[in-house]
Amino acid sequence: MVRYFTRLRVRRIYKWGGRPYIFDRKLKSYGFEYLNMSVEGQEAVTTVTPGQYILIEGNDDEYPFVAKLLKFFGDESHKQKKALVQWFLRLSEVPQNKKLLLGRSPHPQEIFYYLGRACDNEINAESILGTVQHVPEDTPFPEPGTKDTLYVKLSWDTKAFNVLDPVLMQDTPASTPPKPALPLFPPCASPTATPVSRGPVRRALPTPDPTVMRRAGSVSDTRATMSAGKRSTLEAESIHSASKLSASKILSAKRRGSAADTPGVRKKLQLSPGKKMTRADVLCELLDEEMESEKVISLKLSSSVSHSLQHGCSLSPMRSVCKTPNGQRRFPWKLSSISLDRLSPTGYTLSILDSGTTGIDRVITLQIECLDSYAFLSSQRATTPSRRKESAMAIREPALGVLAEEDSEDSPMQPIALTPRSKRKSAQLVSLRIRKQLNLLDNTQKLFSDGDDDCFVPSMKALQSSTDEEKSEEETVVRKTRGRNGKTSARTPCKTPSKKVCMVTPSTPRHATPSIPSRTVPARQPGNILDEARARLHVSSVPESLPCREQEFQDIYNFVESKVMDGTGGCMYISGVPGTGKTATIHEVIRCLQHASDMDEIPTFRFIEINGMKMTDPHQAYVQILQKLTDQKVTADHAAALLEKRFSNPAPKKETTVLLVDELDLLWTRKQNVMYNLFDWPTRRHARLVVLTIANTMDLPERIMINRVASRLGLTRMSFQPYSFKQLQQIITSRLNKVKAFEEDALQLVSRKVAALSGDARRCLDICRRATEICEHSASHPSSTGLVRMSHVMEALDEMFSSSYITAIGCASLQEQLFLRAVIAEFRRLGLEEATFQQVFVQHRALSRVEGLQPISVSEGLAVCQRLGACRLLLLEASRLDMLQRVRLNVSQDDVLYALKAVRD
Amino acid sequence: MSKRKVKETHMPVGECISQVQMILRERFCHQRLPEKPVGMESQHKHLLELLRRTAVHGESNSVLIVGPRGSGKTMLLNCVLRELLEVKDVNKNVLPVHLNGLLQTDDRIALKEITRQLNLENVVGDKVFGSFAENLAFLLEALKKGDRSSSRPVLFILDEFDLFAHHKNQTLLYNLLDVSQSAQAPVAVIGLTCRLDVLELLEKRVKSRFSHRQIHLLSSLSFIQYLDNVRSQLSLPQDFPDTKFYDEWNDSIKTLCEDQSVVDVLQRHYNSSKDFRSLHLLLMLALSRVSASKPAIKPTDLLEASRVCMVDSKANILHGLSILELCLIIAMKHLNDIYEGEPFNFQMVHNEFKKFLQRKSHSIHNFDKPVVMKAFEHLQQLELIKSMDSSTAKIQKEYQLMKLLLDHSQIMEALQKYPQCPTDVKQWAMSAFG
To answer: pTM value?
Structure first.
């Protein structure tokens, strides 16, 4: 399913908030405290303040740019809204060849602090899409699949990944007190959820009480009233989660430990309700699954968020509280949900076990987390039906959210420092078992004092008593939820972004890695001097330097370098017959430029290569370019649209792209739109694209391009002349590099011969290689191989250049030779270069009488004729014409006569 | 009792004969490779060295084996491959990929077949997934990832190489040859073709990437060698179980090859074509006449086989024609003589035929025109005459221009052999003008 670009753009309205506080006289600029964003047609306003992490509109809808906002400023008229930012990079923005430097597989939500230069850090404030959560460098990754939190661990300075200096993250110039970036809460949210009312409620429920829990269950039944719609649930969710304290650090640490086996866990969970379980089994299982279930929860959250939201809302009054030894309050204990295992129609179980004996000392807090202003924004956008994707994201966000939590209401964006839990002697394990697609959420592991342990025993019993009944209930629920799940699966956003990008044909096995099996026995290294020479002379061996193309090298180098330096774009057309080093020279240029950019002499750039011969259709060019740029796999039309967008929109930190288009003539289409686009993009202001094109003919632009394409290609052209014999000789010598395998004269003979014929360096190298083989074979025994001499080279040249027609005629059978003579005789008689088989056959019969041979039948004659035709000594018409097919010679008559004469003598 | 004894003595002969037939048929039907290819030692060495270097050193190569049909290209290649795979190091290390221009008629099919034979990761069972473009990108990526020393060499064997040159843009050839000329996975591209002008078919970029190694298989076999070859082809191998029969058979073959009539027959075949396919056909026909009661090939068998091989197919058809049809053919022959090969139509042929009936015929009475027309159409169906213009529908049947697809000699020969041909028809045929 290709996403077309006809959907509505959401218009956002941006307004400065606060008073202008800086007045720069010279630049006449004002600074502002914050920026209010609102979406047209919606009430809610998002406030963005410096210090927050923001998303900035970029090339890609799915992956907007990420940056940290440093400062707002604008001009007097308040029309221009600018912002200073510190950029962060996604891995997809790191050049392909540098990705390996990371040394591990990247987390999808990972971003990198950008230390590189050559990047404008001033942006238009109106390109801000919203804010985003971010987690500091020392937090481990959560399990993959979460979407709205980004993680910074390393910095990227265009050369290497470095461990991020914590100072960089904190010491930002604009240190205005951060404001909560949460969207406005709608009034419908339950007041008990607000932090103000927490205290008393918590105290009211220090330990779980079955009866109270039952009540809690019934509360949850009333949730229908709460879920008025998607938006309200989302917002309710955000309130709910805002009130929680995060222990995401620990949680994610655990998750990371067992992240790999998630699918298995899910399976296990699905299986478990079918089993009969004894009490002990359940206990063990719960203990075992304790860790795993954390992950499962978030998995499930993604599939059915709305339920979780409803529960979250209904449960909030039942909070329990606990004082940690250091006096910090930890509130979001969801013990109330223990009783829900039976009562709530969605039927999930929360089991609380005494884990003191296991010595597990953990705090697990899974939060449904909201949802800062970005999510809020998305949820609003989601109201437009055509933006299905955004809506999917919005739904998903709460579920994914292992967002960092604030430890004080004042600074919601700051990740908290966790409570020290290591001092605990024993731990209470509260394990939440969630069945099937029921979700939710708050599972907390609470650290209770020893005395508290007793309080949990009854609840365990309650749990056990309920398990049996529960099983049957569950199965029905499972069925229901499955059905629902199947229906809504299209909307669940647990798919990776690449999935939504459609593929032309279904079901290429995913993640098939293209590779040739590796050999069991390693390749043998060259043994003697001739082997060595042969290896060096192979076209594939990359020489240390490219001799004889210094001028061309310099020209291309200067061209590309200047474009990269200036950050502009341009086209260059390079022509030359095959084997004159066009592609090799450009690769050499790029290698040098890469080196220069590694040495910091020029800005970094990206090199992409496509080849007209290596694609099945000219339009595949788009697909290949896009894939090499962003690793996306899309259809040609979609790729064209994405590239168009990429190259025409301004993007502040774009690197120059150097695109090599080999075999340009094959990109020709009737409307020439592929070529047009390739040459049009560099002319765009923001494209920063340098296109180097290669083809064989010098006048290709004039011959095949229509005017508007040729005009865009421009006049920067270069033509590679065929190599002269001196150059060829130099090439071979430089390749051999002091390996003495050839006589001087032999080399000269090869290069002169090739220069006279084509000037193709490949041919020259091939002949030399063949000569070494002949030399090796002709030697009496392998050890005594001498230099390659003239005679060997002559033999190789003969093999490659001599026409085989004359030998073939010489080796033909008697009747075939006779037939050729008959053909010539008939041609002479007719005075034409063409005759029918019938006419030739009459001559043939006469000739065979002269030769004293028994005449052959017509069928035999036809067979002889066909044999000659299959070798292409004769050119024949289609054989169904039988005797009437016309015969022509594919060799000159003189050659035939010469060959036949040689046979007779 | 005696009957049984007779049977016992005959049984081994029958078994021997079936053994002989099995061994020789395997040879003649190209199911068993010969121990050593005959008469192509240098080519064999060249190819073996080339492939060995690819397999052992990981050196990429490309080569074309060119030779007329039946000259032993595939046999040579298979011999070399067999020898190559016997080397221990190579055995598990090479991936041969066999393609045939007649089977893989375009690049899409060829790519799927390559991917399937390489068993890359987008192959599930026997199915290759993905579109044409994806397959190409996948294969190229796979080959690109390999390098000289670590990945297995791939031998691409392209039978009927010239047909691959007719694929669109020669994409497949370009890419294979490009890989063979760049530092990617080691490959050897081996093309088999019978066209001597195959290089002219290659596009200039493809041609530049081809290494221009051609191995020509042009047999310069003399007749003496040819005869030796026949003898060795018919002789039984050393390890034949029954030594007595072995000696007898080989002696009979030796005498057979010295028989003058047999030598004449073989000479005639040798003059016609030197390739082994036609020879094998001849020997196969002779072999099939061997039975337990006649446990040796006799010269007459070979003569008969040769007669079957050399027979003119059209003359055979003429023998099955009716007198009326034959008369029409003769009328056409006269028209050809008169108008020097210009095309004729039914009306002309009918007129000529009527003239003959009025003036000369004694034995043949008049036929109705529709009957003659029917006979004419039958000749057309037998493709003894061929319509000249393609737009048959527009012209009335009688006036469609036709040409005779028979030679004078064929007609005369057929008349000689035609059973009970009326003499007046014969005379009409032989007379200079109708």
So the answer is: 0.66
